[in-house]
Amino acid sequence: MEQGETSSPPEDEEKERGGEEDDDFGYGLFPDRNKKPQSFLVRSFFTFHNRCQVMLRMTLETNPYAQLLLEAMKQSGCTVFNDRHFSCENCDGCVSGGFDSATSQIVLCQNNIRQQSHMNRVVAHELIHAFDHCRAHVDWFKNVKHLACSEIRAANLSGDCTLMNEIARFKFGLKGHHQACVRDRAIRSILAVRKVSKETAEKAVDEVFDACFNDLEPFGRIPHSKTDAKRAYRDFQNRDRYNANL
């Protein structure tokens, strides 16, 4: 999770689960989810919303992480539409975005995303959750290992743990630092949206870490930079051309 990117289930699920009535599955971080949508005219007067829409459009049109994920989702039968599957909303002060599996919608926190590079990273992170939701039977609500796996993949493949981002967080390391960053951010993501102990989150992450860390679809490699992501996107396109000629 990029400081709060998450996968959120519908509220009805909460009522069906015994012993966890107090767990809102992270919905409290996204208060606009339960509000009546504002008209376009009203929203157009808010700078945050306009800025969010402009940055989103730029990401979808130019960012190789997002472009690869969008194409991969389309090939998996889950075409993403800007107006349908992205929503710029106000969120809790600690989060940047989330994936609402109940609506198959990515929430972008317009009050917290202020830079294009941040938008790029949030969109890539959430699209990985959306890709996992499309290609697999992910039990976001009841199976914390499923959530842990997707969070590991999102932290690993979205650029969350690139060297430059870690330096910006004043975190430095040598051997194994990328893996440590992925593990830490996956645990933080779980704790942000599930009322479980840190020990439970750590256990879930550790039990699935190797398999999920090495699941590099659809990139085929860990994109440590935008250059790596561009290469991965080119390879993905070439792979499709090869398969088309079989």
From TrEMBL:
Per the UniProt record, one Pfam family is Peptidase_M76
Show the GO cellular component annotation of the record: mitochondrion
What's the Enzyme Commission number for this chain? 3.4.24.-
Keyword field contains Cell membrane: no
Q: Does the keyword field hold GTP-binding? A: no
For this entry, list what GO says about its biological process: mitochondrial protein processing; mitochondrial proton-transporting ATP synthase complex assembly
Family note: Belongs to the peptidase M76 family.
What is the scientific name of the source organism? Bucorvus abyssinicus
Record's protein name: Mitochondrial inner membrane protease ATP23
* Bias (Acidic residues) ranges: 10-25
Using the UniProt annotation, give all residue ranges assigned to the region (Disordered). Answer: 1-29
Enzyme category, top tier = hydrolase
Q: Which gene encodes it?
A: Atp23
MF terms (GO), sorted A to Z: metal ion binding; metalloendopeptidase activity
User: Which keywords are on file for this protein?
Assistant: Hydrolase, Metal-binding, Metalloprotease, Protease
**Alphabetical list of InterPro entries matching this protein:** Peptidase_M76_ATP23 (IPR019165)
**Coiled-coil annotated residue ranges, if any:** none
